[in-house]
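Practice problem: predict the structure.
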Amino acid sequence: MLELDKKSMENIDPEGPQEIVVNIGPQHPSTHGVLRLVVTLDGERIVKCDPVVGYLHRALEKIAENRTYLQFVPLTDRIDYCASMNSNLPWVMAAEKLGGITPPPRAEYIRVIVCELNRVASHLVWWATNLLDLGAVTPFNYAFRDREMIIDLFEMLCGARLLYGYMRVGGVSKDLPDEFIPKTRKFIEHFREAIKDYDRLVTGNIIFQTRTIDKGVLSPEDAVAYGVTGPNLRASGVSWDLRRDEPYSVYPEFNFEIPLGKKGDCFDRYIVRMDEMRQSCNIVEQALNKLPSGPVIVPELPYRLKIPKGEVYVRTEAPRGEMGVYLVSDGDSKAYRAKIRTGSFSNLSVFPSMLPGALLQDMIAISGSMDFILPEIDR
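Answer:
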């Protein structure tokens, strides 16, 4: 064994690159799930990065083809468990579009309210875990304190705190309880002040800025070429948001801005998500002010709803990018074919192009700034 080591040492060029291959994950806190990154290093500099996925694959799309449209709603919660409301929405919208079903106006407003609240809750998980990856413990406590207020609202609404199964084809499962609206207004008032504390604690921190500014730059051309969507695309300066550019539900009724970055680095991705939380609060407040009365679901829809033959693709703006559902119906109560498009899969695909040249410690900051979640990648 010693002799082999001597021979291998003799073949090393002390002046040339000395590359080693390192596995990061699939069990690692900074990979945010069972993701394996095979990283080739020259010293601390990344030469190559190959993401390896598939450890969490559950065949959700095949399961969808063996469940009724309603039965699959709780499983959409598992696509992005940090944003279950947003994961419910494209599935029920696709079934509604294919079946010619129009939800009542009140249901549409409620969908927007819960999806934007869930966007804030999801971004708070990102804020907490991203900063925890970088060594900052205190922000985690701030974020989860405020996220709990949203989770309390959802528990009041549907009895669950993580996986909600709240949407239905034709509307939502339950109307808002009486105390929901005043408590939501109270949360918005609180959060607008709390996010100022976030800025004072983190945004202007010189250590945080050193770790994120000019790190993991993603050009707008690369972002578009790789199909990157959501906050990561907008941080690269590409003004594209499905809520505005291909509006759905009642989003055209509201005024909101689309935050954009300039460099496409980790810091821009941070700023865009911070501003998105502020804009989501504005949307929720407008929706509460305009909330119409009436039913919250189309009455008398059968449990085993049969959708006419056809095919449809519906896409929505989820917290981690475009979430779309492609459905093919053969006229039965189950989808003949189902395909789910998620933001995290495309956002991860840019890593082999994005990471070479970065330092190993920068990879943790870059990975956290992209905010992918593994159930979206392995469906």
